[in-house]
Specification:
It is a single chain. It is elongated, with a radius of gyration of 20 Å. A hairpin with a 5-residue loop joins strand 12 (168-175) and strand 13 (181-188). The chain starts with a helix and ends with a helix. The protein has helices at 2-11, 16-25, 124-127, 221-227; strands at residues 30-37, 41-48, 62-63, 68-75, 80-86, 94-99, 102-105, 108-113, 130-137, 140-141, 149-158, 168-175, 181-188, 191-200, 203-212. The protein has 228 residues and is mostly beta strands.
């Protein structure tokens, strides 16, 4: 009877429990908004926030995507779980598995608005990028000694604070073996951005450089002064 009661309680665990896990694992960067359903089957919108400086609490999150659905199945036989996530921005349903203490993500592609990069901090929160962002990845294995890589490309990005259109196209690469850092480089365009971002003490930071190609120095001077 007790075992049955435990099973029933677990089966009905509210979906809001998922948000606590997601927020903690992403250092407050990602939240689930307007959650409905249970941890096994539910839906929500994606939200972003920041860790409040000098504390361990998250700032108020803001919604950035339409709703998505998930379906979670777990097995007690081999202590494994499989999560299926459906959203219009994905090329195909996102498949996430957990087994032997490791998380794995199947290869996929995601297309979203470049303004979401503002959540990464400098230099994006200054540039306020406009354009399309494409994220693609091979089969990923997360954790210590992870496998695979994540590639994010910003296509012909522009900014409301610059008259130059487009500013350029840029690429961010994150190696799963080093989840605490990512590299940025310029693919093309008059505004050259390069550097490395890091996660330290649950905070995002970026060290790099920004400069204009010779013929665009004057027209990009104000933007470069803001970026610093």
């Amino acid at each position: 009877m007790i075992a049955l009661l435990v099973v029933l309680i677990i089966h009905q665990l509210p979906a809001r429990w998922v948000n606590r896990i997601v927020a903690d694992q992403t250092f407050c960067q990602v939240h689930l908004k307007d959650i409905s359903g249970t941890i096994w089957q539910g839906s929500a919108s994606l939200g972003i926030a920041q860790l409040v400086p000098g504390s361990t609490t998250c700032s108020r999150s803001k919604t950035i995507t339409e709703r998505f659905n998930w379906d979670l199945k777990c097995s007690l036989n081999d202590w494994s779980c499989f999560l299926r996530v459906e959203h219009l921005a994905f090329e195909k349903p996102l498949m996430i598995s957990w087994a032997d203490g490791r998380w794995k993500l199947s290869n996929n592609m995601l297309k979203i608005s470049a303004h979401l990069l503002e959540n990464l901090g400098s230099p994006w929160n200054t540039i306020k990028p406009v354009g399309q962002l494409t994220a693609s990845w091979s089969d990923l294995e997360l954790g210590q000694g992870g496998l695979g890589s994540l590639r994010i490309v910003m296509h012909e990005m522009s900014s409301p604070i610059s008259p130059v259109v487009p500013l350029g196209s840029y690429e961010i690469i994150m190696n799963m073996a080093m989840l605490d850092q990512w590299d940025l480089k310029t693919l093309m365009g008059p505004l050259v951005l390069a550097g490395q971002g890091k996660i330290h003490d649950r905070q995002l930071s970026f060290v790099g450089q920004a400069f204009a190609l010779n013929q665009n120095t004057e027209s990009l001077a104000s933007l470069l002064s803001l970026i610093g």
